[in-house]
Amino acid sequence: xxxxxxxxxxxxxxxxxxxxxxxxxxxxxxxxxxxxxxxxxxxxxxxxxxxxxxxxxxxxxxxxxxxxxxxxxxxxxxxxxxxxxxxxxxxxxxxxxxxxxxxxxxxxxxxxxxxxxxxxxxxxxxxxxxxxxxxxxxxxxxxxxxxxxxxxxxxxxxxxxxxxxxxxxxxxxxxxxxxxxxxxxxxxxxxxx
Length: 193
Fold this sequence. Notes:
This protein is of the alpha+beta class. It has 2 domains: 2-73, Glutaredoxin; 84-190, Up-down Bundle (Glutathione S-transferase Yfyf (Class Pi), Chain A, domain 2). It has 7 helices and 4 strands. It has helices at residues 10-21, 41-46, 66-73, 84-114, 124-140, 154-163, 177-190; strands at residues 2-5, 27-30, 54-56, 62-64. Strands 2-1-3-4 form a 4-stranded mixed beta sheet, covered by helices on one side. Helix 1 (10-21) runs parallel beside helix 3 (66-73), helix 4 packs antiparallel against helix 5 and helix 6 crosses helix 7. The protein is globular and about 45 Å long. The protein starts with a strand and ends with a helix.
């Protein structure tokens, strides 16, 4: 398998962490988004959306979108709950991550860390919704150590990617002690350094 990804991207790292966790063999092809390497004709032939991550599976088929990729890679593994309701809860968190977490926490991080903007210059909507997303995580972790019960799942992988670096976008995690403890548990479970 070939994984096209940028090491600064939480969405790309999700794929790497799942592949590593499952012991899958792959070639990592660093694709620098800051240099527009996902916009070349060669890359666009692989993924017309011009986004990383993208993978070429062992059988030659391409697949894009981080959560679709990790769901495919983890099929049949303990990262996907066997119980239908828990699996649906995992997917609920994963869909929420792409719609209500990543567009705020990750976007703030990108603007501050990689484009050099000051946190004070970010759109107030990004800051407010990012803080609301972190509070939603804090509340969601009140009853269990992971987002879907007692074991790490793809929901945790999807959400830890940008939450663990939220401070790089101006979101301090001090007000979210359950989130901080959860990050440590997920990193330990996935052996993320």
